[in-house]
Amino acid sequence: MIWPTMKRCHVLCALALFPVLSSPAAAGGESLIESLRFETRNADRLELRLGLASYDTGVLSGRNHSGVTLHGQVMFPSPDFLAAVGAPRPYVGVNLSPGGERTDFLFAGVEWEAYVTDRLYLVAGVGGAIHNADDLHNPTRYKALGCRALFHLSAGLGYDIGPNLTVQVYHDHFSNAGLCSRNQGADHAGVRVGYRF
Which of these, 166, 95, 153, 165, lies nearest to 126 by C-alpha position? Predict the structure, then answer.
């Protein structure tokens, strides 16, 4: 019964935020959505991210476990053929959860950046992941993820401290979108620091 309740919550949140996002701003006369700039300022840069997250914590799946996740991610320059879709940068990353009963994730995909101001920006990514859970269907130590290969969705809010250094709060979601018999999903939420080269 968690999933229908969560879907209702997401719809209500979206309805509540729509007037705010679509209403004209006091100063510029444009809405927040119109002011977002899918910029390519970082499209040609390599970036290394390191962070800490809360294990099994997020908005898309229930919290059944606790602990800390070590996060690492490498962002690559966006290839030219992705320029037509906002120049997202390809990434590879890993979420390592210390402890014998933890599940680790290796993931890859593409991520977009949308600047709200000169320093504040939103990130959204989509890709795939694999994990090392022992039992996919009837686990005793973790959730029933159903498939070895999962989808990876990510979102975050970032702030550029300088031209090379940035900090983000972020959320990772891993699930199989109902393609396998079990799909409890896994979430990590945390803070990470990025350095652009």
Answer: 153
**12 CA to centre of own chain:** 21
State how far the Cα of 89 lies from the Cα of 79, in Å rounded to an integer: 8
- Quote the mean pLDDT of the chain: 81
Tokens of 17: 């935020």
Q: Do residues 72 and 91 make contact, with C-beta atoms less than 8 angstroms apart?
A: no
CATH number assigned to the domain with residue range 40-196, chosen from the 4 options 2.70.150.10, 2.40.160.20, 3.30.70.2190, 3.30.230.10: 2.40.160.20
Provide the terminal-to-terminal Cα distance of the chain, rounded to the nearest Å.
46
Residue 85 has pLDDT above 60, yes or no: yes
pTM comes to 0.77
* 29-53 pLDDT, tens digit each: 555 555 555 667 899 999 999 999 9
pLDDT score recorded for residue 139: 64
